[in-house]
Amino acid sequence: MILVTGGTGLVGSHLLFALAESGDEKIRATYRTLESQERVHALFKWKTAQRPEIVEDLFDKIEWIQATVNDIPALTEAFENIVEVYHCAALISFNPKDFESLQKINVEGTANIVNLSIKNKIRKLCYVSSVAALGDSKKQITEDTHWEANKENSVYSISKFASEMEVWRGTQEGLDVVIVNPGVILGEGFYSQGSGVFFRKLSKGLKYIVPGSSGFVDVVDVVEAMVLLMKHSITNERYILVGHNIKFSTLFEKIAVALKSTVPLKKIKIWQLELAWRLDWFAGIFGNKRRLFRSTARSAYAQVSYDSSKLKQDLNFTYTPLNDTIQRISKHFNSQ
C-alpha cells in the first residue's frame, strides 16, 4: 500500500489522481478537514470530465486517514501495511512570525515521517522539497549548489533545508529515498495560494509586473517525475524539477492572454519593491496583515535560473510545454 501525506494539497491531490488512475496499488492519504477532501474530489471530477462514470471508482480507491504530521498516534495507524511513502505535506509561508510553525510542521513533521518509515521498513520514501532548499548562484543552480545559512534566507527556505537534513539522516539509518526540488509549481485547483494567486489576480486585471525571473514547472510533471523515480532503482538522489526558466513578466503575459484579460504593462522597479516590503513591515507593527516580506520582494526581482538536466539525463524526461500548462489551468480556472 502507498501512503501520501498532504493528500489534499496541490501536489498531493494531483498525485492521488495519478496513482488511482494507474490502479497499481492500494492508496492511503492523510487529510486535515473534510472540506479539503471535497477539493480533491472536485479535482478528480474535472480530470475525468470526458469519463464521468469512473470518477467515483477512482476516488473510492483512496483510504483517508485524518492526521497531521505531528500526530504520532494517527500517523502510526496510517503507516500500517505501507510499503512506499510520498511525503507531500508541508506548510508554505514566508512570514517570519510563522518560523516556529514551519519548524514544527516541516522539520519535526518530516522527522516523524522518516522515523516511522524506518520503523516500518518502508521500501522507499519520496520527499517533496523545494528549490528554496538549494543554494544561490549567479550561474544556473544545480542539485549540487551549496545552501548557506545567512540572513537573506526566508524562513521557508530554512525549514525546507532542515527538513532535507532529516531525510538525509534517514538514509544513514538504511532508508532509501529520493528528493525532488520543484520550482514554482503551476497547477489547477488551488487559486488562493501559491502560483494559483497569479491566475486569480490576473483575471481581475493585474496592472503591474515585476522584473525578476524564476523556474516554473507543471504539477503534472512533478507528479510524473515522482512516480517514475519511485519505480526506478535510483535511490538517495535529489532532482531539480523545473521545466521553464522565464521572467515573471513573460509568465504573466501568457496567463493574461489565456484568461482573455488585460496584459499587465507597468513595471515595478527594484527600489519600489524594497520600499514596499519595509512599509508593509511597518504596517504590520500596528496589527495589519503582512502581505509582502523581504524574501518575497527580493525574489520578485532576482534573476534566478535552474539546471534540470539531471532528471532529463537519468529518466529521459520531457517537460510539458508552458503554453499547454497555462491553457489547461486557465480553462479550469474559468470553469470555476
UniProtKB/TrEMBL annotation:
Residues 2-238 form the NAD-dependent epimerase/dehydratase domain. SUPFAM superfamilies: NAD(P)-binding Rossmann-fold domains. One of its GO terms (cellular component) is cytoplasm. One of its GO terms (molecular function) is aldehyde dehydrogenase (NAD+) activity. Pfam families: Epimerase (PF01370). This is Nucleoside-diphosphate-sugar epimerase. It comes from Leeuwenhoekiella aequorea.
